[in-house]
Design goal:
about 5% strand, Rhomboid-like fold, mainly alpha, disordered N terminus, three-stranded antiparallel sheet
Length: about 350
């Protein structure tokens, strides 16, 4: 996106810091909520990008009439400013801004369609690491290839291509629903990556050879994001819920689902001790019987959840005497104090 930038932090007014705070909250809140609840970070990232774009569109629609704050001035990547410490934040923040609705839509489609199954393969922490590698690789590639440019670069395209690169490196035979060659159907990941990356390289060649006109698309950022994630994906994926290279079967319960279940079972926690005994407030009556059944039958995810939920109804927090609630921690049931998770998080 071509726009001359003339920005200094000293020019930021109080109302501008308010908008910066709003953008930060809408960007981070979906991810924080998903991480806390054990929901999909890929879908949370989609929501995060759409919310930020909505605020960005609102500000641009009323620029100069009601507001004089333009997020691209502050948060876009500008290669010519990359060496200045006060502008280092741009390499991160630019991944939440987009030029228009089609720009953000193209990226969130890839993040949703490829990102969700990849997150199931990798697990949430490894997935977010790959996502960050994608947009960092894209921004670094853009800065290195355009070191003297002061034109802003924005978008999560590097991250989207990074997800494809990581998927290609680890599970290329997976088939995912994806719009490709004018059809939406289940394509193998290797074909999706081959076509998308091939188009980027072809377009770059066309521009360099003079057979295509100027463009405001950062093709080098797409390629940089793809290859950095591709190169580092396999080390990151070690120990993930799915073994690298595994092919999901089509009959019965998929091996992917089995791997995710095994991973959750391994995180269930030990039932030998309990927070009430540790606090010197031994359980009695029905709660004692429930705890005994929990220890006898709590080897499976479903039975453990059932007994923990019943135990929560018949006991109180040993620290503050508050209500005990059951929560879902990425597929594993645990007990928390309703007032503070620091009081009790068991097992």
């Amino acid at each position: 996106m071509a726009r001359d930038i003339d920005f200094l932090w000293g020019q930021v007014e109080t109302v501008d810091f308010l908008w910066i705070a709003i953008l930060f909250v809408v960007a981070v809140a979906p991810l924080a909520f998903a991480a806390r609840k054990g929901d999909s970070l890929a879908l949370a990232m989609v929501l995060s990008l759409l919310l930020v774009h909505f605020i960005q569109y609102f500000l641009s629609a009323f620029q100069h009439s009601l507001f004089d704050f333009y997020p691209i001035d502050i948060f876009s990547v500008i290669p010519g400013l990359a060496g200045e410490p006060t502008h280092l934040h741009r390499i991160f923040t630019s991944a939440w801004l987009h030029g228009d609705f089609l720009h953000v839509l193209g990226n969130v489609l890839v993040i949703a369609l490829a990102g969700v199954p990849l997150e199931q393969r990798l697990g949430p922490r490894r997935w977010i690491a790959v996502y960050f590698l994608g947009f960092l690789g894209g921004n670094i590639a853009w800065i290195l290839s355009h070191p003297n440019s002061f034109a802003p670069a924005i978008g999560a395209s590097g991250a989207a291509f990074g997800l494809l690169g990581a998927y290609m490196a680890c599970w290329p035979e997976d088939k995912i629903e994806f719009p490709l060659i004018f059809l939406i159907r289940a394509w193998p990941v290797w074909l999706i990556a081959f076509v998308r990356l091939g188009l980027e390289i072809f377009q770059m060649y066309s521009i360099q050879s003079g057979t295509a006109g100027e463009t405001n698309i950062a093709h080098m950022a797409h390629i940089g994001g793809f290859f950095l994630a591709y190169l580092l994906a396999r080390p990151i994926a070690r120990g993930a819920p799915s073994p690298i290279g595994e092919i999901v079967t089509s009959s019965g319960i998929s091996s992917l689902s089995n791997d995710i279940r095994k991973q959750a079972t391994a995180r269930m926690g030990n039932l030998e001790g309990d927070p009430w005994e540790s606090a010197g407030k031994h359980l009695g009556g029905r709660a004692t019987r429930i705890l005994s059944r929990l220890r006898e039958e709590g080897d499976e995810l479903e039975t453990r959840r059932a007994w923990l939920e019943e135990l929560a109804e018949h006991t109180i927090c040993p620290i503050c005497d508050g209500e005990v609630i059951s929560i879902d921690d990425r597929g594993v049931c645990r007990l928390n104090c309703s007032l503070s998770p620091d009081h009790i998080r068991w097992p």
